[in-house]
Amino acid sequence: MSPQQVKQLNQLKQFHQLVLQDSSLKERLRVATDQASLVSIAVQLGTELGYSFTYQEVEAYIDQNILTLMRQFLF
């Protein structure tokens, strides 16, 4: 993994932790109707908050952490 990829993965992890702590961010993500809209909203929110990650990176993060994410957001 390149240093840039490590940086972006760390930003995704930080963003994930921020969302877990901020109910307004959770609500903004909950309006997603499918994975594509969830990823788009996450990238948009991340950009608004000063993070830098791509659509593909968010998709990969979701794919790698799907069980954890489901437990945190659906139950």
Architecture overview:
The protein is an all-alpha fold and 75 residues long. The protein has one domain. Helix 1 packs across helix 2 and helix 2 runs antiparallel to helix 3. 13% of the residues are buried. The mean pLDDT is 88. InterPro entries: Nif11 (IPR012903).
Task: Please sum up the structure shown.
The protein is mainly α. The protein has helices spanning 3-21, 23-30, 35-48, 55-64, 66-74.
Please indicate the percent range of residues in DSSP E strands (runs of 2 or more): under 5%
Largest sheet: none
What's the overall geometry? globular
Instruction: Report the uncertain regions.
Output: none
Mean pLDDT: 88
Helix content: over 70%
Distance between the termini: 33 Å
Cα gyration radius (Å):
12 Å
Main structural class: mainly alpha
Order of helices and strands: HHHHH
Per DSSP E runs of 2 or more residues, the count of β-strands stands at 0
Whole-number tally of structural domains: 1
- Tally the helices: what do you get? 5
Pfam families: Nif11 (PF07862)
Protein name: Nif11 family protein
Domain Nif11: 10-57
Organism: Fischerella muscicola CCMEE 5323
Features:
75 residues, mainly alpha, 5 helices, 80% helix, Nif11, Nif11 family protein
